[in-house]
Amino acid sequence: MVLRPLPRILSNGSAQIARGRELARTAADSATDILHPLITVTRGLRRLASAGRRKWADTPKDKRGPLLFLVASLVLVVALVPYGPLLAVVSLMAAAAWHGRDRTAAEPDGPDAPKAERLRSLYEALVPYFSTPEDPAPLYAHGGEWEKAFSAHEFDEAGRVGHLVIRYPAYFPDGEAEARARIEHLLTAKSGRGREYHFTWDEEGNRLTVAVLAPLPTDIAAQRFVTAPGETVLGFTDPTEVQRTLPLGYGEAQRDVPPVVWRTGARSTEPHLLALGRPGSGTSTLLRSIALQALQYGDVLIVEGGGTGEYAFLAGRSGVLGVECGLTGALAGLEWAAHETERRLITTNRARQEGQTPPDDTKRPLWILLDRPSVFSHLAAADGRADPQSLLQVPLRHGRAANVTVVVAEQFEGTDALSEAVRQHTRARVVLGPATPEQLAVVLGAPPNTTPLAQVPPGRGYARLGSGPVLRLQVPATPDPYDDAASEGDREAVAALLPGRVAPPDEPGAVREGAVERASVETVRAEAVALESS
Question: Is Transmembrane among this UniProt entry's keywords (predicted)?
């Protein structure tokens, strides 16, 4: 059976329709240009007729007779005068053309005096950085023309610079971080403090684009995010930085917001995370948000060194293996986590050698969340015990293969107490709260393209996943549901996400749902010996 080709109208109909639309649009534009005088005269005649009707309606009835007699006399005189009708028609057309002209006010060619003065001041401030005495034709010079240096500019309602494209000479060292930082600091001070600016350096075209960033939304409450297993939403960022959006609920309304998604699991390149910040910056909020998302697919072990009880609401919940707030409990929990990681590795390796699928308890994600571990390090050193962070070497080093994820939150004051293993294996980094550009560069490994603010709301900061770009971040509001200082709506949103409680282990018939069976040290060692002997 021979297949006949489709008719051309069906095969390439869309292309013909597109060309037809383009031809129709071109013909319409050409007709508009040709008929523009006729359109203007017609518009003027319509306006003159409207003015005549209004004049006739405003004339009192007792004066309409004399007005008609006067108009008729004028028409008679014009008709009797040589060339009178022709002159009348020409005069009428001229009046119609005058009244039918486009009356929209022409936009000014440049900014007004205050805006021009602001741009001139900014230009003069850049002269010492973008000029050199050896330049025969400097683009920047005192008293020079700022119009040549600023190729595009926009202002906000307050009269401050909102968008600016700056040309700079080719000899400026735009590849050096120090030189860039000086220019960015100067532009931030001269354009108006209290706002975040995004700087885009075009090294090939010698262009610097300065844009004012809109504040990130701070009214996003904790909720179930539309993500796949192994994806965790750290917060939300600018729409121009990511190519994905999530539908979020705001009461009865919804809107799409770009998220910062952190991917964990066996194929993740950044399996562990480190969050730093000042007191009150929102690092504990970030850990609570991660814990609520992790409990949807896995188990969570929480070790809190702050002693404030901000994670007590998770104790006894399904999937929560423990909430340790003391040194003894922290050492026991982290020691079990290390042996559990070894058990998973041994079991998975044995199953793969036998050509079988690994057991389900080795594939269920295990999350270890530590808040301020430096406190336990100090207590352990004072008590003569081992540092709890030393027990993190196995989960950090082999956590990706064993489906174990470690999240550490610490304050800037305790960064010196972090172990070398934590520093090396936590390639996903988050900095919350006020921070200097130097601190951001040290923690994230690269400076951000925006200017950090001195005053930011809780949960506001920057994130960088591995070697990716530095992104602005706003953590969703995830307060302690027992905290009366938090808003009632945010506390109810967190309470709605909590899993159900499990029965205490001492009750008859109690089952700990979602908990991973804890393997003893002797069992793990015996399995390791058996595996090596085989």
Answer: yes
Q: How far apart are CA 129 and CA 322, in angstroms?
A: 57
First CA to last CA across the chain, in angstroms? 64
Q: For the range 381-386, what are the long-range contacts, defined as Cβ-Cβ under 8 Å and sequence gap of 24 or more?
A: 383/327, 385/327, 385/331, 386/331
Question: What distance in Å separates the CA atoms of residue 308 and residue 324, rounded to the nearest whole number?
Answer: 12
Q: Contact at 8 Å (CB) between 233 and 472?
A: no
Query: Tens digit of pLDDT for each residue in 316-328?
Result: 999 999 999 999 9
Q: Point out the least confidently predicted range of 92-101, 185-194, 220-229, 490-499.
A: 92-101
In terms of pLDDT, which residue wins out, 327 or 526? Answer: 327
Q: What is the 3-state secondary structure (H, E, C) of 465-507?
A: ECCCCCEEEECCECCCCCCCCCCHHHHHHHHHHCCCECCCCCC
Which residue type does 422 have?
V
427 closest CA partner among 261, 260, 272: 272
**What pTM was computed for the model?**
0.74
pLDDT digits (tens, 9 = 90+) for 505-516: 554 433 333 333
